[in-house]
Amino acid sequence: MKRKGIVVAVVCLSALITVFNAVYIGRNQFIHIIKDVFNRNMVNNSSNFRDIVSTISTKKFAITKSMNESIMKLYARSFDNVITPYSSKYMIDGKNICSVSPLPSLLIFVLSLPKAKEERQAIRQTWGSVAKQSQAFFNISTRLVFVLGRMAEETLSQVLKDESTEYQDMVQIDFIESRYNLTRKMMHGLMWVKTYCQSINYILKADDDTFINVIRLSDYLLRDSNISHDTIHGFLYRKGGQVLRYGKYAVSKEELPSDRYPPYASGTAYILPYDVISDMFDLAERLPYCPVDDAFLTGVLRVILDIKLKHTDYFTDMFQYHYKPCKFHSQIAVTNINTKCMYLLWNLTTHEKETDCEQSKLYDKQICSIFG
Ligand SMILES: *[C@@H]1O[C@H](CO)[C@@H](O)[C@H](O)[C@H]1NC(C)=O
Ligand SMILES: *[C@@H]1O[C@H](CO)[C@@H](O)[C@H](O)[C@H]1NC(C)=O
Ligand SMILES: *[C@@H]1O[C@H](CO)[C@@H](O)[C@H](O)[C@H]1NC(C)=O
Ligand SMILES: *[C@@H]1O[C@H](CO)[C@@H](O)[C@H](O)[C@H]1NC(C)=O
Ligand SMILES: *[C@@H]1O[C@H](CO)[C@@H](O)[C@H](O)[C@H]1NC(C)=O
Ligand SMILES: *[C@@H]1O[C@H](CO)[C@@H](O)[C@H](O)[C@H]1NC(C)=O
Ligand SMILES: *[C@@H]1O[C@H](CO)[C@@H](O)[C@H](O)[C@H]1NC(C)=O
């Protein structure tokens, strides 16, 4: 009976491979497909399972029907070759950030510019401090990393190296900073994670003007039973969005032929499971470069790879400006935050009881324009 199951499974696998033999996908996706086949045939022998996975995953071609359909919808062609390589070199490799015990399970991943030391300091001294000292309310082994590229005229290299030596929380990658290069920045950053930070389960991606209420984040990660390794969590644009061909967020037809983005999460802050980043990386190298990083990563790549996406109101997007102080106790992320406001919000979330928020003494419109 067992044998028969295995034979059926192997036949199914060969069928899958022959039918869908054009598009490369990563190892995790193989495992997913194979598990599926095994489940359907009720094969239950993990040693056989491992054999088959290791044989099959050296052949880089298998894709599910729904993935193929997604690719067809978005690009109307299939991709076998690396056309957008993301290999890179580091000016600051940050290789010790994640190697110190206790190994982290969460990585706070903040995009930062070389000149933005004030913003980095504000994060280090406020919500980012959970990466350095454990707090009663934050029980997750965490590291903070600022991901930087370089300016065309690099003038800060020694200053940045000194800052990095002092704080041990920076990675600088050798590409030129620009809005157009934001996807490149994300991808290089994820590659760094894959190389140097393999113990983690989740990445919390944030911008350096985003404030994270780490108390709520901890609740969400530890107590929400629905958080899982195959789901991106964030503030969702459920209907996706139009692909703009001009202006600040312009994307050409060559970069993305489809007229609309699939549903995606706002890039201001989202949770990305570690398990999906290799597949994202492998696929991104086989698609044309697309400069709108959040729509590309959590929309296009996600849809093709069949990764789930979950909306939560606790996250935010860059168009939300007005909050009442009480709202902060339930929010995980707010954005458009200047550094002074960062300190104020930190005081608000750590020094004030939830019940005090109606009469908050810290509430200060002068400092935080987000108080509506
Ligand atoms: C993907 O779907 C298209 C359109 O249905 C089909 O022509 C193509 O052969 C498929 N490619 C793969 C790799 O399955
Ligand atoms: C596989 O084996 C485990 C342990 O023997 C058992 O608990 C599980 O129910 C089995 N699964 C299937 C699908 O037979
Ligand atoms: C699982 O498969 C391997 C390889 O075919 C075999 O050596 C082993 O005995 C099997 N284990 C069980 C529990 O059936
Ligand atoms: C923190 O983690 C430790 C060890 O896993 C556990 O015993 C403790 O209850 C946790 N505390 C909170 C507040 O979750
Ligand atoms: C993006 O980075 C690459 C690599 O450093 C650089 O050659 C290119 O000029 C940058 N693009 C823009 C638009 O800044
Ligand atoms: C978990 O997911 C289920 C099904 O989607 C939903 O009904 C439930 O409310 C969710 N629980 C939480 C705590 O979000
Ligand atoms: C935050 O609290 C600290 C210590 O209580 C205080 O010195 C600081 O002025 C406060 N900052 C803001 C912006 O409210």
Automatic annotation (TrEMBL):
Coiled coil: none annotated. GO terms for cellular component: Golgi membrane. Signal peptide: none annotated. The keyword Glycoprotein applies. Pfam families: Galactosyl_T. Keywords: Glycoprotein, Glycosyltransferase, Golgi apparatus, Membrane, Signal-anchor, Transferase, Transmembrane, Transmembrane helix. Its main location: Golgi. Its EC number is 2.4.1.-. It is a single-pass type II membrane protein. One of its GO terms (molecular function) is glycosyltransferase activity. It comes from the Eukaryota. It is found in: Golgi apparatus membrane. Belongs to the glycosyltransferase 31 family. This is Hexosyltransferase.
